[in-house]
Amino acid sequence: MIYTRGSRSDYDSWGRMSGDMKTWSWDTLKPWILKHETWTPPVGGRDPTGQYDPRYHGAQGPLRVTLPWSDEDDFDRRVVRNAELQKEFEARLDMNDGTPTGLSHCQFTFGGGERNSAATAYLGNSTRERPNLDIVVNVHVKRVIPTGEKAQGRLDIRTVEVGSRFSDTTAQVTAGKEVILSAGALGTPHILLNSGIGDKSDLDRVGVATIHHLPGVGKGLSDHVSVLVAWGMNGTVPQYDRDVALKQWMKDRTGPMSEWYELGKQFLWSRLPEKSPLLTKYGDPASGPLAPHIELPLGFPVENVNIGLIILLTPHSRGTVKLASSNPFDAPLLDPNYLSHPFDMEAMKEGIRIAKRWYSGPAWDGLLTGFLGPDPDNSSQSTSEFENAFKASVDQFGHPIGTAAMSPPGSKKGVVDNKLKGF
Predict the structure, then answer these.
(1) Where is the Glucose-methanol-choline oxidoreductase N-terminal domain (predicted)?
(2) With contact defined as beta carbons under 8 Å apart, do 304 and 310 qualify?
(3) What pLDDT, on the 0 to 100 scale, is given for residue 262?
């Protein structure tokens, strides 16, 4: 729903890591990024000038992207004013121009007052009616199976076995050219491991025969961790009548139900201080000097409280996805391993301090009454007390990655090469 691309250095790092800057870089991929998008004016006709940069948006793609329906309120205007007054936080015209660090207006995959997604963009009615496309529903991919002999050291895997957990029926489908396995950061390693492709010792443990020892499968799981923080606030937040809002949306697709009303309209991305001892001690996990470490969505005001989210974008911690059993219908075992690396806890503390500095600006005078915590600088609480309470309240953000990683040709650590072919 929130439309973010990341830093150009993120894309360039893929090229450096894979040894293929020709294929994997911001400049190479940008035309394809624009190709999938159509920038759509906000519903209701408000003027979004000054809130995005049209040079970084497409006009003929299937996925519609826009800004919120509603105009700026008092909170939003204070956000803009605060960036003007606090030089630490630079305002940016467009969050998706490849240099996101700073303050930007939030963009969403909405269009015409309705939510867009990969499903609506690429599997709409006209697509589903194509004679060369079959969509199979209510089945589960159990595994992929070698179709022929090894060629150039690779397994020839073009057969997919599917079944249903509610019956004993199993079917196999063989592709003439290739199979694209794209089941997400949790589903992809689950299918590969059920197929006997993974770390042999882990497969032996659950009784799955190994057809290809590939230790990287399911390793390297990473996600954004987050924690809620809060400030006292004077006054109340206007609430909308849901029945009235629904009638408005049904009439012309405008109103609070045409946007993510509870979320503020702007995001702040920030980096740890340049001379932070964390970066000296552990290295910089960000892809470049313009890539942020911390994300702070701005504006979750409820009655007498402003809620903030501190999101760590660059954790060092890594977890795993493993099989629970040899039954492909059993859910995998997930070990997210959050905050296991010391950098992550300390970086989250720095994220809270960044948020405290942001909300200490003069633009918040008369609205915010003080920081409510959790506070790493609270002298009445020991470090261990704070960290234990912090760990109990931290959450994931549903952005898992890394379990079928791309690596340079010849590497023994990854799962796919620079052409996304399995090792």
Answers:
(1) 184-198
(2) no
(3) 64
One domain for residues 323 and 237: yes
Q: What confidence score (pLDDT) does residue 260 get?
A: 80
Q: Is residue 147 exposed (0-12), middle (13-18) or buried (19+ Cβ within 10 Å)?
A: middle
Range of the domain at 184: 136-213
Cis peptide before 301 (omega within 30 of 0): no
Q: Please give the Cα distance from 307 to 297 (Å, whole number).
A: 10
Q: What is the mean pLDDT for each group of 10 consecutive residues in the chain (423 residues)?
A: 94 93 95 96 93 96 94 89 92 95 94 92 92 92 89 84 92 95 97 98 98 96 96 82 93 90 83 94 95 92 88 97 98 97 97 96 94 93 93 91 90 89 87
Q: Are residues 289 and 379 in the same domain?
A: yes
> According to the model, what pLDDT value does residue 151 have?
66
Residue with tokens 């010391």, as numbered in its chain: 342
Separation of alpha carbons 114 and 419, rounded Å: 35
Beta bridge partners of 164: none
Residues 174 and 305 in one domain: no
Torsion angles phi and psi, residue 185, rounded to 5: -70, -15
DSSP string, 204-239: HHHTPPPSEE-TTTTEEEB--EEEEEEEEESS----
Tokens coding 88: 């630490």
Instruction: For 132, list phi and psi in degrees, rounded to 5.
Output: -100, 20
Do residues 89 and 83 touch, judged by C-beta distance below 8 A? yes
Residue 141 marked as a ligand binder: yes
333-335/300-302 β-pairing: unpaired
Q: Is 345 inside any structural domain?
A: yes
Q: What CATH number is attached to the domain comprising 197? A: 3.50.50.60
Cα–Cα distance measured from residue 33 to residue 57, given in angstroms and rounded to the nearest whole number: 8
- Asked whether residue 203 falls in the same domain as residue 240, the answer is no
Look at the chain and report how many structural domains it folds into.
2
Closest CA to 63 of 105, 119, 11: 119
Cis peptide before 285 (omega within 30 of 0): no
As a whole number of angstroms, the distance between CA 347 and CA 289 comes to 16
Structure tokens at 82: 């605060």
- The residues with which 396 forms a beta bridge, in sequence order, are 225
Tokens of 382: 């020991």
- Quote the pLDDT of residue 417: 92
Phi, then psi, of 251 in degrees rounded to 5: -75, -50
Domain identity same for 197 and 303: no
210, 203 contact by CB (below 8 A): yes
